[in-house]
Amino acid sequence: MIETLRRIVQEVNGADSLDMTLEIIVRRVKDAMSTEVCSVYLHNYLNGNFVFSATAGLNSDQVGIASLKKGEGLVGLVASRGEAINLESAQNHPSFQLVPGIGEESFKAFLGVPIMHQRKILGVLVVQQAGERRFDESEEAFLITLSAQLAGVIAHAQLSGAVERQAGSVSESYTKVNGIIGAPGIGIGAAFVMSHAADMSLVADKNASDRLAELRNFRDALAKVRRDIEEVSNSLSGELSAEDHALFDVYLGILDDSLLGGEVAKLIKSGQWAQGALSQVMMRHIKHFERMEHSYLRERAVDVKDLGSRVLAYLQEGYQEERFFPERTVLVSEELTASMLGEIPRENLAGLVSVRGSGNSHVAILARAMGVPAVMGVVDLPLSSLEGWSLIVDGYNGVIYPNADAKTLSRFQTLADRDLAVIQELEPLKTEPCETLDDHSLTLWVNTGVMSDIDYSIDLGAEGVGLYRTEIPFLLRESFPSEEEQRKIYRDQLKAFAPKPVTMRTLDVGGDKSLSYFPIEEQNPSLGWRGIRVTLDHPEIFIGQLRAMLKANEGLGNLRIMLPMVTTLVELNDALELISRSHSEISFEGWESNLPPIGVMIEVPAAVYQARELARRVDFLSVGSNDLTQYLLAVDRNNPRVSQLYDHFNPAVLKALMSVASAARQENKPVSICGELAGNPQAAPILMAMGYDILSMSANSILPVKKTIRSLRFEDSVNLLDEVLKLDNSLEIIERLNQVLSENGLESFIHQ
Ligand code: PEP
Ligand code: MG
User: Which of 72, 385, 457, 675 would bridge with 626, disulfide CB 3.0–4.6 Å?
Assistant: First the structure.
């Protein structure tokens, strides 16, 4: 059964349209289960009907025409119950209703299972048989398993098909695609799909502007690959037998006109650009080979892939067509890279979308620094057909709306315009203090990483740096920076803000923050080797960094050092010892630098429960609410499937924040928050009321948070906190906090 399932799923994955997907499903399921009928009914979200969408065994003329209304018949019952229905004789069931025209009169046995994706019903998969009989348990289990496995593929195919066919006429909820917040803001523009070098699976479809030139490019690239392979073959002539050499001929033969070369040329002549034609043909054959039973033939997929990538590399090298970026470009890629960002003029860049990648990836960090709305991890996005589509990037909620209808477009345009107006309106606040109407003051600091953050933050009147992510300069290099290189980088940071404090976090890699030159491959990276665990295991890296920080602080004295991902007191003690050792070393070497204040980040539940003990040993605590939320709720902060559950306003998170603030107070130590929550105006009043002394956020959030604090009374915020802590779910909490913003004329800060 597993083998049959695997083969069906693999074949379905290779389909390039919804119709083909469904066609494969019904044919293969009918064969695998030896039934007489298999059909799929798809849910039409606009009217609630279930449309007869594919069949093997019934009247296929009715495909796309016949349908059942919401709740009608056995299909409706399967959908409304969301569970399988298995009947010996369908006609005897009270809900039975014949679908006219499809020819199901003579079929008695019925097994229907729902096709569910992310709690939504996509459709119903049905098998039928003439004789009265009950499908047995293993058949039922097979169909349920298959349906669950195929739901994602169907959802994907359905989305691309529907959006293309019905541009502008489908409802918003139908076409919205969830991802992860990369950088806040609303971006509206046309999709420009950028591919990675020589990866065939990432090449987008495009029309050729000059078919002959494309054909010529393709032939040139082929000739170059032939030449390369012949060279390799010749250079090995002394080491291989004549028989082995024949392999190279077979290999090269794949590219002949009579085989794949001819197919690619044909596609180019029909109007596809060379890269797209090559990729389509090669990918189809790769999938075909991969499905082969015989392992020798399966291996050929590797050859085809290798040849294809070689040709593609030459095509990309020679592809010199000038790129024209739409006036408002939404840059889309399977995996965005920093260099891709650099190819588009800033004034054309309206938004960023990456199918892979996390909110902590390098691109997301740059996007935040540049103020470009970005959504990452949009795995359901049909990338290859996206070129030129209109896209709305909702960076506040991590959602994309492809080819949205006029109503949705205008709603988001209003939000984007409002954001612009707010920025101008807040400008005068730069020089104002951050204090409530009843004179309670709160300190706002910035989070930095890239150099461009510095000027911007200073211009905004930031009072200090609450989190300098030192891994960012590490990410920008091809090897660990030397101690001296680091010293200069840190010196620039410290000097730019002096005498204002700069909190430098020691290297926080691992998890979703990876360095290309220091790969960490793990089954479960978030619970693995990351943050302080890595640096304690590599004291040579840790000490080098600490020494660089301490030296950079000479004559300035505004450094603070902060330790990420601390889980035990032992880790803290070990780190403190290394800090003190580094300090003694550099002092001995003649550097005059005092031991700076040292703090611990509270990012894991263990640290919440030991916050007092931790606070006792250091000078300050700072909550990393991004990770703390992830670990408290057991929700991967970078997994779009569970992004709805990743919720800073979950009552458990708020209780943990309360407890950390009170632990710090009991030990008389200052406490801050430096995760994204700190920059959220909705949270500002309750964080202040909890007793947080400092909120540290990305520079763009400083003025909205300041405006919020300046519009409120501390006393009211304390009451609000009391009220909110009694609510038992985040929806009610967010609603209450939004109400407070609205009542104080701050509705423009509400984004969820
Ligand atoms: C956090 O976890 O809240 C934090 C500030 O660190 P990072 O997002 O870099 O993990
Ligand atoms: Mg963190």
Answer: 675
Atom 8 of ligand 1, residue of closest alpha carbon: 626
Low-confidence ranges of the chain (pLDDT < 70): 160-175, 196-198, 235-247, 293-300, 318-323, 338-339
Backbone angles phi and psi of 395, in degrees to 5? -75, -10
Question: How far, in Å, from the CA of 624 to the mean position of ligand 1?
Answer: 5
Q: Give the length of the chain.
A: 752
Check residue 244 and give its pLDDT.
Answer: 61
H-only helix segments in 480-560: 483-497, 532-537, 539-552
Q: Which of ligand 1's atoms lies nearest the C-alpha of 469?
A: 9
The ranges assigned to domains in the chain are: 2-166, 177-195+324-415, 210-318, 470-596, 600-752
> To test the ligand 1 pocket, which listed residue (450, 563, 601, 660) has its Cβ within 8 A of the most ligand atoms?
601
* Cis peptide preceding 651, ω within 30 of 0: no
DSSP state of 223: H
600-752: CATH architecture: Alpha-Beta Barrel (3.20)
662 lines ligand 1 (CB under 6 A): no
Q: Are 426 and 434 in contact (CB under 8 A)?
A: no
Q: Which CATH superfamily is domain 470-596 in?
A: Phosphoenolpyruvate-binding domains (3.20.20.60)
CATH entry, 210-318, from 1.25.40.10, 3.40.50.1000, 3.60.70.12, 1.10.274.10 = 1.10.274.10
What is the residue with the minimal CA distance to atom 1 of ligand 1? 624
CA of 567 to the centre of ligand 2 (A): 12
- Whether the full predicted model's pTM is greater than 0.90, yes or no, is no
- pLDDT reported for residue 174: 52
Predicted confidence at residue 109, as pLDDT, reads 96
For ligand 1, whether the C-beta of 466 sits within 6 Å is no
Looking at domain 2-166, its CATH superfamily turns out to be: GAF domain (3.30.450.40)
Catalytic residue IDs:
362, 674
| pLDDT value, residue 172 | 44
Whole-number Å distance, alpha carbon 350 to ligand 1 midpoint, is 26
Give me 412's structure tokens. Answer: 């988001």
For atom 6 of ligand 1, the residue with the nearest CA is: 624
Q: How many C-alpha atoms does 623 have within 13 Å on its Cβ side?
A: 40
For residue 717, report the distance from its CA to the centre of ligand 2, in Å.
Answer: 27
Predicted confidence at residue 163, as pLDDT, reads: 47
Can 210-318 and 470-596 be said to share one CATH topology? Answer: no
Q: What torsion, rounded to 10 degrees, do the Cα atoms 656, 659, 661, 665 define?
A: -170
